[in-house]
Automatic annotation (TrEMBL):
Pfam families: PRiA4_ORF3 (PF07929). Residues 3-140 form the Plasmid pRiA4b Orf3-like domain. Gene3D superfamilies: MM3350-like (3.10.290.30). This is Plasmid pRiA4b ORF-3 family protein. It comes from Corynebacterium casei LMG S-19264. PANTHER family: LEXA REPRESSOR-RELATED (PTHR41878), TNPR PROTEIN (PTHR41878:SF1). InterPro entries: MM3350-like_sf, Plasmid_pRiA4b_Orf3-like.
Length: 423
């Protein structure tokens, strides 16, 4: 069942209200999009959710990712709004919280749980009255009590159409409004082509990505992630000590040989030249694209970005993933990689390193089917799994840079897929 939530715009006269049916699993960043549409706001100002107790200083904040720590009030407690569902905040009838939009005009909305409502594909307004003020109109807002008109059937239909447009990938191409901070700029171009395709299977995949909670880095995952990222950490540590280069700018054979022996890399050759060992070439080129190191005379040195990412695993994942995308300028390959991440992030398919197991082809076959639904053709035929071997490259660069067929836990693959989508 959905939650039946009464939303009152308390700081406006006359007061506007909406009775909204909301999926309890909807995270607060998605509730923000619903409220924007329900009241006709333009999503052009900052916002926050707060859960207030009797004493103002005890209130709890739910914040969006662009907040800086020093912007929070002293003594308050904050959780990312992407981590908290509306059902966790409003549990029983009478529970309430607040949503503030535009800190200059301070439009404060009170959300109170009244009961349950019938579920639907998207949130919807059951009834409403009054209109929200114009944006940036606080100084001109009247305090006189004016008549509040109940929304007509046509007006409700218009409001619900806006909500669907902000929630339905087939209707809206506004990435920021639909996904919030869940995805990064690389996702944008693929998203536009997905919307243009107007395909039900692609739409279902996008809806699943919208509704999927963003996984958190638990202590158990952190421990596994440290092990998985160990080759990258070691390479960055070596760069901090300076990695020698040849006159042509390649990794020195002595360094390459030591790294190959230390990590037992299957090089398939006795040559210690970087160009003959794909794993070493990947470490060198991806770290360059990710701006994790810099060249200084005849050595590689750790950059300031590399120093920061070395101890910030989510940031390291995002930078490595973005560097993987940077290798491909063709939209087909980028779409394949984004779709691969989406399938893993939603749990529709499991991540399997290329060549590790035969059943790893299932993910690539699903990516090929999605590409075909988007209208892609390869030499006049629809794509197949052999055309999309790069579909898992963003994850493979993070999880298995040395081609050792590392098989991470499903939870870690899911977490890394979400971080890669933010690249």
């Amino acid at each position: 069942m959905y939650l039946k939530v009464r939303v009152s715009l308390e700081t406006a006269q006359p007061r506007a209200t909406r009775l909204i049916a909301i999926d309890p699993a909807l995270t607060l960043d998605r509730v923000h999009a619903v409220l924007q549409s329900a009241f006709g706001w333009s999503n052009s100002h900052l916002h926050q959710f707060t859960q207030r107790n009797c004493r103002l200083e005890d209130r709890k904040f739910f914040i969006y990712p662009y907040w800086e720590p020093d912007m929070l009030e002293v003594g308050s407690f904050a959780d990312p709004e992407t981590d908290v569902s509306i059902g966790e905040v409003l549990r029983e009838a009478g529970d309430f919280c607040y949503y503030e939009y535009d800190f200059g005009d301070s439009w404060v909305h009170r959300l109170e749980l009244e009961g349950q409502a019938e579920p639907a594909d998207f949130a919807y307004v059951i009834e409403g009255a009054g209109q929200a003020p114009e944006e940036d109109s606080r100084g001109r807002q009247t305090d006189r009590e004016l008549p509040v008109h109940v929304l007509s059937r046509d007006a409700l239909a218009e409001v619900n159409a806006r909500i669907e447009a902000s929630s339905n990938p087939r209707v809206s191409a506004d990435v920021a409004l639909v996904f919030g901070d869940r995805v990064g700029p690389i996702f944008g171009a693929t998203w536009e082509r997905i919307v243009d395709a107007r395909n039900q299977e692609l739409n279902d995949l996008c809806v699943a990505l919208m509704k999927q909670p963003v996984p958190q880095l638990t202590p158990e995952l952190q421990q596994e992630l440290v092990q998985v990222l160990a080759p990258w950490a070691d390479f960055l540590d070596e760069a901090e000590r300076e990695i020698p280069l040849t006159k042509s700018g390649y990794l020195a054979p002595k360094f390459t040989g030591g790294f190959v022996e230390k990590w037992k890399i299957n090089a398939w050759t006795k040559s210690l030249r970087e160009v003959d060992i794909p794993q070493m070439w990947r470490l060198h080129e991806v770290s360059k694209a990710a701006k994790l190191r810099r060249k200084y005379r005849s050595t590689l040195r750790l950059s300031s970005t590399g120093k920061a990412a070395r101890n910030d695993h989510p940031e390291l994942i995002r930078r490595l993933s973005a560097a993987s995308f940077a290798r491909y300028s063709d939209a087909f390959f980028r779409d394949a990689m984004v779709l691969g991440l989406m399938l893993v992030a939603t749990g529709a398919q499991a991540y399997v390193p290329v060549g590790a197991r035969v059943d790893g082809r299932e993910l690539r076959e699903s990516v090929a089917e999605c590409l075909a639904a988007m209208g892609w053709m390869i030499d006049g035929v629809t794509p197949n799994s052999y055309h999309v071997t790069m579909a898992t490259e963003a994850l493979e660069t993070v999880l298995d840079p040395l081609h050792q067929h590392v098989d991470p836990s499903p939870e870690l693959a899911l977490y890394c897929a979400w971080q890669a989508l933010k690249a």
